[in-house]
Amino acid sequence: MLMKIDSFNHVPEVVTPVDAATLEARAADPAPREYGSQGVYTPDPDFSRLAFAWPGRQGEREAVITYCVTPMGKTEEIRVARSSGVGAIDRVCRDAVKKWRFKPHEINGRRVRSCEGVSFQIRVTRARRRRR
Fold first, then answer.
1. 3-state SS assignment for residue 30
2. Which listed residue, 9, 27, 84, 123, has the most CB atoms within 10 A of its CB?
3. How far apart are CA 61 and CA 41, in angstroms?
């Protein structure tokens, strides 16, 4: 059985809970805010490992991974915040984040540690066989 990864997206998202009053205050403040670090090297998870992680199946899965960026731009404290339901897919996504490198967040010209999260949205479909 042939399988392919039909689409793959990793979408940064803030995973820190925020109360309603804070959200209203942010919406009322028109000034742009900078937060977090900037990705310099953020490769996608290994597609072949993803296909083997969920063999013979198709569908959509989402895994949310949290991580912290050191002042040197490396990732640490990498955790699965919301599982995809398939442990092997979670591990592949977590391993990809381990390789990422960032331009660290700066406050008053000084590099600081920051923690962020990313949502991996994976859709697996069966590959169509070519007719001869």
1. coil
2. 84
3. 24
131 part of a folded domain: no
Q: Concatenate the DSSP letters of all residues of 61-100 into one string.
A: EEEEEEEEE-TTSBEEEEEEEE--S-HHHHHHHHHHHHH-
Q: Per DSSP, what are the bridge partners of residue 9?
A: 121
Place of tokens 């969920």: 54
The token duo for 130 is 């070519």
Residue that has been written with the tokens 């063999």 in this structure: 55
pTM above 0.70, yes or no: no
The CATH number of residue 82's host domain is: 3.30.1150.10
Q: What would the pLDDT profile of 56-85 be if each residue is shown by its tens digit?
A: 777 888 999 999 999 999 999 999 999 988
**Secondary structure of the chain: what % helix, strand, coil (to 5)?**
20, 45, 35
Rounded mean pLDDT, 46-59: 76
